[in-house]
Amino acid sequence: MAARLAPFIVVAVSAIASYLPVFTNEFAWDDGYIVLLNKDIQSLSNIPAIFTRPWAGAVEYGLGQAQNQPYFRPVAEASMAIDWAIGQGPNPVIFHTTNLLIHVISALFLLVWLRRMQQSHDKEGTPNTWLAVAVTLFWAIHPVHTEAVNLVTYRTTLLSGLSTITVLMLLTKPGWRRIIVASLAFILGLLAKEVTLVTPALLLVTDIFTKNFNKFRILQIYLPLAIISFLYLGLRQIMTGPGMYDFFDGMTGFQRFAMIFRVFYLYIRLVILPFPLCPFYDWSILGIPTSLLEPDIFAGLLLMLAFPVVIVLCLKRLPVLAHGLTFFLVALLPVSHIIPFFDAAGERFLYVPLMGMALALLALGKLRASKRAKTILALVVLVAYALLTFHRSTEWHDSETVLKALVRDFPISVSANLGLGQLLTDADRSDEAIPYFEAVTKLAPSLAVGHGMLAVAVARTGDYERARTILIKAPPPEAQLPSAVQIARDELAKSNQQAILRALGL
Known about the structure:
Strand content: under 5%
Low-confidence stretches: none
Mean pLDDT: 93
Number of domains: 3
Radius of gyration: 24 Å
Largest sheet: none
Order of helices and strands: HHHHHHHHHHHHHHHHHHHHHHHHH
Number of helices: 25
Structural class: mainly alpha
């Protein structure tokens, strides 16, 4: 019994140890309004209402409500209401513990599924349990998941991932009970995050590669999953509204096309080298494409072309590698910008695709290298990932710590400098905010908000003459956007700083 449980204990303990800082972390990033300003999660009696409106539909933040209109994620929000009730308020320990628990359960289910995939792809050989443990740990402690695990807001990703691996784990074996439970898990996943829709496609990939696809599974499994998917899409259409933003607004068709390869390269790089990490990939970090010959775009194009070639070449000799790479590509489809959406890129989007990479790594067992060499390599990689995950989790302690890490690693990010400056200004630390707003005016000189906020920060230090000069020299705003003067006036009025308004003549 102990021997059978040992692999699961190793995975669970390793994942928890890598994420220990979450237990002392505060709420950060979008948690500031999704959790702390969300009336719906403050009482269990509100849970029925959560299922009648878009994600964050009752937050006390108008912009937050508006920008989340396209999303319907009531299961994630209902789970937060349960956490609120357990902690009798916004207790970050309870919320973060739930996130980590979901992640650990997903890792344990992944281990079960990977061991079954070993048996399916190598019926004559003896399954290598500790190889399955190693590749499960690759997924469980991978630093790219720190964003989803550390942010309560991104519990949507965790629940969606848990739903997907639950369906895959259950439906690798026949049985009506398994089908019913898997269907329920699929429904809950859809109501947590939209990308769960890719689950039937991932199951189909698995069935094809394990030679388990037949007409009976079409009727017993795929037909119910298809019906559930169509019903969900209809419900989502009723419950959601149009989005406020288009990240690709104003870009040419070529630029949108080139971004597919840039983002693909970024994801491959993050799988192999998850450092530095970024909670918000804006245009100042990614860059607007100008040519297919830009190094990362060209590399992404070559990699995208290489994947199907490698898959075909490995079909007979290393089917598990071909299976894993195909799984990765299919799981990545919803976030590949073939159909552009608001977020240019996000580390949380790799949560399910990385399961495919873990599956592909089972092929390491077939490599002609000494067992000692493979063991040493695995240990070095896993220890390095665990240390990076632990360190990155400390940087998610609160919004200030993660923004400072973002500015440190991506000093050219306009969003990072602006966000940190705004946070420090709101905390009445305007003198500390000035350098970050100055960076914004240099990185994006035509952006009125940088000049407006710089003037506010300078004025709050008592240097009214410089603040007036900043506003006078500020560039005119883009069409339909507020001017630097209007931004400064609104910011000072919001904090009821009438004396400064008079001093600046606003």
